[in-house]
Structure formats: C-alpha cells, structure tokens
Amino acid sequence: MESVVINTRADLDALTGTPEHTQFMASLRGTLWRLEKDDVVKAWAANEDNSTIARFGFTRADFAEIVSPALPVYVPPPSTVPQTVSRLQARMALHLAGLLPQIEALMTDPATDMLTKLAWQDAQDFRRNSPTVAALAVLLDLDSAQLDALFVAAQAITA
Q1: Domain ranges in the chain?
Q2: What is the mean pLDDT of residues 26-39?
C-alpha cells in the first residue's frame, strides 16, 4: 500500500474525489483556529490562523460554515510557590528580607496571641496556607505576593 504525499495544491487537486482529498481538507479545516491559553485573563482564546491554508492557496472563504471551536475549560498552571518550608529556611528568608527583628519583637509583645507565639517557637516547618502564617503576614503588612516571594526565597535556602 502506497502512502499519499501532499506537499502542494497541485498534489491535493490531483486527489480530488478521493478519501485522501476529503481527509486532507478536513485536516486543513482543523488548522483554521489556534487555541491559546491566557494565564493573565485565565481563559482560552480561539484566534484565526490562515497560515496553513494559505500555503495551499486557500482562503477562509474556501471552507463553508467556519465555526470557532469550543474552548477548553481553563485550568490554572501549577503554583511555583512552595507550600511548606523548614523553620530554618523561614527564619533565614525573614532575616534576608529584613523582617526577622519585627517578628522577634512581635513574639515578645504581650498583645501577640499565645498560639501564634507557640507556633513560632515550636513549629518545625511553616505552611503557606496556615493561620499562623496568615496572621504573621497581616502583622507584618505583607500582601499575598510578598508572602509568596518569601516562601520562594526560603525554599532556595540550603544549609
């Protein structure tokens, strides 16, 4: 069985009326849209793309009833922010960011919640989504992006 090679419009036209022609035209129809994931707006977009059909001398008008494809469900990329860092990594990252003295002052402040103090003193690791970390971030006036940056910096620390 000989395979069919279609490199040009002439090759395709020579196959008019055959299953190979029908199949190739269906394949060309599939190139009319380029799906792109946009992580900024958190959605997929279907963008017209005529580059492949143009190579074969076609325009969009050569394809009847062109319909934009259904867009896939957007799934955000996996987070690159570590969810857990060791106590040592956390303390070193805070020191490097100039925040360790503020934390230590909070731990000696009688107004600081005892559970927060105990967690700071005894935790072997710190979790990004823990209530203690959230409370400390508020006390340090850190937003979510700044807290993420601290966790990324902490993960990079090896001792």
Answers
A1: 9-62, 84-156
A2: 93
